[in-house]
Specification:
about 375 residues, four-stranded antiparallel sheet, five-stranded mixed sheet, globular, single chain, 19 strands, alpha+beta
Amino acid sequence: MRIAYGDLIGGISGDMFVAALLDLGLSLAVLRRELRKIPTLTFELNVAKKRVHSLTATQFQVTPPSNEPPRSWKQIRQLIEKSNLASEVKETVVKIFHRLAEVEGKIHGVPTEEVHFHEVGATDSIVDILAAAIGFHELKIGALHFSKVPLGRGLAQSGHGPLPVPGPATLELLKGIPVQWTGLEGENVTPTGAAIMSGIGTSFGEQPNMTIEKIGYGSGQKEWPDRPNLFRLVLGASTEWQREEMLVIETNIDDMNPQFFEHVMDRLFVGGARDVFFSPIQMKKNRPAVLVRVIAELQDRDRLAKILFEETTTIGLRYHSVGRIILNRTEATIKTRFGDVKVKILQEPGGEKRITPEYDELKRIAIEKKIPLNVLRDEIVKSFKE
């Protein structure tokens, strides 16, 4: 599987991320063609090479119309949904902007649907996010990993007036992501850059095992005294398996109707949990109880904690970081004599591939065709050819 590692040498912004994609080999002609699929956006693209501390990097800049009014999340979503962009690009863009809208709504105390963006709602930021999603899919990146995030300090001007650095939206977007505080005076991580990372990032902090193919450098607009203002994107193939930094959230419950646990599990999965499981335990005074354990991505901690507090009788949670090693996998639809079936294609450490059909697909076909589920699964797995 093709993966990429984003190294935040000087920080990250939307334009730095796109510049690194272009430096890796994303075609500017393809990018312009795809961006024209939203005909109501008016802008100019400026791409140039720049020397940064003796390194050659790409600089990307969007010039929008002057005096643009703020756009609402609803308006931006309509622009995206009505466009002719590929469905996977639309999904990625909507995911990134929805995260931004959630954060802005929380900060300013308004419902997500009523959020109006200022800087992030301007055409240049919209194009940055669109271009990031287009490049991510054009380069066929299966997983995107990032380094720890260096953060500057000070004050920055915004549509709401002067704000502390890092900005409130940036910090909210970085919840659950490892950061390191630096002595940089100024904003080196923008809300757009943070939204792209939290929206499409797979893991943060540790470099993935990979075979390097290409390296791209995206330059920022500012200059820092102690480091080059660069975002480096390393593209390559993953080696055998992936490493991820995950979070375990858990709690002991001894006073809840056991019928409710099914609903709790359903809500946690909808909320983004990677896995949920219950274990019987004995607590103090030998009381029988249930250990609820949730495995999740770092940035989903608060959302899942809220669900646990709302849906269970717990009054406290524990959480800790864990490492996870997983086999490389891709999702695909294969043709069988029973029709199209969604499967996961897994790569074994020795390079062999095997498939795991989706259970819901098997169940649906087994009921429709009146075939024993285990017989159906065995036939589909045996019929798979690379």
